[in-house]
Structure formats: structure tokens, C-alpha cells
Design goal:
Number of domains: 1
Helix content: 55-70%
Order of helices and strands: EEHHHHHHHHHH
Radius of gyration: 18 Å
Length: 171
């Protein structure tokens, strides 16, 4: 059904998404684990640089849209137990000069995978309470906790700075 404001969403759909995201926290479906592993495979330098950039962006988008997927990506067989620096080294293209797009996308995906100040907040609370703004609730709600974490952390701005030596020195 469409209106002047565009197509309408089916009722109850956000609740179904919440329930599925909560279930993933308990038991990760094997097809989701396999899809994350498959997508991760495209991040390696055996693929074209453009495919890697597209993969970095896709992984970043999935991690930021769905709390909990970060841990699933890090648990894939090719990434399990690796540090940010180790993953950076295995995803870096050898004997080529990286473009700014590549360097930016790589830094962004590594930040999404290893940043825990914000993701830790989202991963520890039930999905249905993530955006609860009830003023009667005790303490800070999730949104307020995220704002405090963002304000007190300069990690994101540092990760987005393209002149950091950790990636640029490997070119």
C-alpha cells in the first residue's frame, strides 16, 4: 500500500526483527555464520581492490546496523583470534599503493570490528530497550550512554584521519 509519504511498512515487522536479533545473541544460525565467513572472504587481497573496498563498506554497514554481528565476523575462521593490526596486514594489498578510498574503508571496517566503547553498550542490552526514552527509567538510557561514550572518545575521529602512520606506512 502506498501513500503520499511512500510505501507503508508492514505492521509488526520491527518486532520480528528485534526477536530475531535477540535470538542471534543466544544461538548464531549456521547460515548467518557461513554468510559472514563468505563475505569476509572477499576482503582479502586475492580479490580486486574495488571488491575489497566494497566488502569493507558492506561489513561496516552490517556491523553498525545489527548489534552483535561484529562478534560473528570476528569469530569466522579466517579472523578468529586476530588483532586489528594482524587483520590490517592480511587485508592490505602488497606491492601496490593504496588509494585514499581503500585506506579509508580499511580503517573504517577495522574500527567497526574492534571499537568496543559503543558496540559494547549496544551488545549488552536487549534490542527492544536500545532506544527506550522513558524519562521514568532510572539512570541513563542507551541513547544517552552512547552520546556520553561518543563525547568522551576521540577514537572515531582518529580512525577516520587518513594521515595516521599505521596504515600509511605500509603503502
Amino acid at each position: 500500500m502506498t501513500s503520499k509519504q511512500g510505501p507503508s511498512r508492514p505492521k509488526g515487522r520491527p518486532l520480528v526483527r528485534q526477536i530475531k536479533l535477540e535470538e542471534i545473541r543466544i544461538v548464531v544460525p549456521s547460515d548467518l555464520r557461513e554468510n559472514c565467513a563468505s563475505l569476509t572472504g572477499y576482503a582479502f587481497p586475492s580479490e580486486s581492490a574495488q571488491t575489497q573496498v566494497t566488502t569493507f563498506i558492506a561489513i561496516t554497514a552490517l556491523i553498525t546496523h545489527y548489534p552483535g554481528l561484529r562478534k560473528i565476523f570476528l569469530a569466522t575462521s579466517k579472523l578468529q583470534g586476530l588483532s586489528s593490526m594482524e587483520i590490517s596486514c592480511i587485508w592490505m594489498r602488497k606491492n601496490t599503493v593504496e588509494t585514499q578510498d581503500f585506506a579509508f574503508a580499511l580503517k573504517l571496517v577495522l574500527h567497526a570490528l574492534f571499537e568496543t566503547d559503543l558496540s559494547g553498550i549496544l551488545e549488552e542490552v536487549p534490542i527492544q530497550t536500545c532506544f527506550d526514552t522513558d524519562p521514568a527509567s532510572p539512570g541513563l538510557n542507551v541513547t544517552e550512554r552512547l552520546l556520553v561514550a561518543i563525547e568522551s572518545s576521540l577514537e572515531l575521529s582518529n580512525a577516520l584521519n587518513l594521515n595516521t602512520p599505521d596504515i600509511d606506512s605500509k603503502s
